[in-house]
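Continuing the batch. This is chain 6 of the set; chains 1 through 5 are on the previous pages. Same settings as before, nothing changed between runs. Recording input and output for traceability.
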Amino acid sequence: MAVATAVHPVVLYARVSQARDERSKSVDDQLTELRRWAEREGWPIVGTYRDDSVSASRYAGGKARPGWEQAMNAVTSGKVRALLVWELSRATRDRAVSVALETACAARGVRIGYGGRLHDPATADGAFSVGLDALLAAKESAMTSERTRRAVESRATGGRPHGPLAYGYRRVIDPGSGRAIGREVDPEQGPIVEEIVRRLLDREPANAIADDLNARDVPTRTGKQWRAANLAKLAQRPTYAGLRVHHGEVLDGVAATWPPIITVDDHHRLRALFGSPERDKWRNSTAVKHLGTGVFRCGRDGCDGRMRVVAQAGKPSRYDCRDCHRVSRLQGPVDDLVQRVIIERLSRPDALDVLTGPDESDRRREAASETVRLRAEETDIQRLLRGGQLTLGDLAAWRAGWTPRINAAELAARPVTLPDSVTGIAGPDADKRWAEATIATRRAVLDTLMVVTIRPVIHGGQPFDPHGVRITWKGQGG
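Output for chain 6:
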C-alpha cells in the first residue's frame, strides 16, 4: 500500500463516556485493536493517550479531556504522520472540535485513521469522508441528548425522582427484576433529617447540631463528619418536603412519588429563616458565649447595629456596638434585666396564648399581599425570559434582589408557631428550666420572642437605668 509505506510514526487515542456495558467497547479494547492495526502495517507507535468516562459531546459542559489534549499536541508537533482512533466519535462528537482536528491534520500532513482506513483531510475525498462522519457523530450526540432531555422532563412532570439518592432515603428494589422502582424513608437516616430540621427551626446553631451528631457517631452518607454549612444546605432541600425540582425550580402541582420526611410548611419556614437578611454569623456561631452578642441592637439614631461583648482585664465586660462603637453598656445588668423579663413572661399561665396571638393580624395580611405581588413579578420575569427579552444574566441579577424579599415576606406571612425552645421553657417552672438551658437555647428563645435595643447613655458614670434598655415583644406578644 502506497499510503501505508508513506506513514511512519502514529499516535493512538481511545475514549469512553461511561463505564463499559454490553453495547460499548472499553478503552483497553479500543487500544488493543489500534495496536494490532499499527503492528500489521509496521507503523511505530510514539504515543498512546486515553480518557476514561469523559464525554466528547458539546453537551458535556466543557469537561476537560487531558488525553485528547495530549493527542492534539502530538498532532500539531509535526512529528507524527497519523492519529488512530477506533471510530471518529471516540475523538469527538462536537462539530467545532472535529473541524479543528481536520484543520490541524491537514496543515501538518497528518492522516486520521479509524475503521481500518486512513483519511487525509488535506484531500477533497478525505475531507468529505471525515466531515460526513463527523456530522453523523454530532447528529447521534444531539439525538442522544434530546432523548435524555425528554426522559428527564417526563420523570419531572410525573413526580419521579432523578439524580443521586438523597440522605434520609433508600431505594425500593423490585425482588423480581432487582431494579430500583422507587424510594422510601430510611428508618435510620429519616429521623435524623427530621431532627436536624426541628432543631434548626428552634434557632439552634447549625454548628452545635453538627457537633452533637458527630459526638453521637451519627454517620453522613459518605461516612465523613457533619459540617454546619453542609448540614444547613441539606436540611433546606425541597426533596424532604416531597417537592419535585426541575432546573432548580420547584414544579407547582406535581406530586412527588416518594414520601415526605417533613411538611411543606416546615420547608418554607426553614428556607425563609436562612434567607432572612437579619441572619448572620454573630447570631448563630457556636463561638458566641454571651446572651446578646449579635442579637441585641444598637439604639443610636441611624445605626441599628448589633452588639458585641468587650472584656478588658480588671474591668467588667460591656456590650458595645460593633458598627458605630458609640453605644456601650455593662453586660451584667443588661443580661439580668432581659432574663428577668423573659422568665416573668414565660411563667404566666397564658404565656403561649399571649405570645402566638391571632393569625390574621394586619402585618401578616400585608406580608401575604407582598408575597402574592412578588410571585407575580417572578411569573412576569420568567415570561420575558422565555420570550427572549431577558438574558440569563438579567435573571441572575434580578434574583439577587428578589430572593431575600420573597423569603422575608413569606416568613412574615406565616402564622406564628413557637419553637420547642420556647414551649419547653414556658410554664410555672420557667425560672428553673431557663437556668438549666444552654446558652444556645436561651439565645434562641430571646431571638424568637423579643427585640432588645440598648439606647445611648446621655451622661456617663450614672447608675444602671433599666429604661436605657428597650424590650419590644415580637408578634401579638407586644
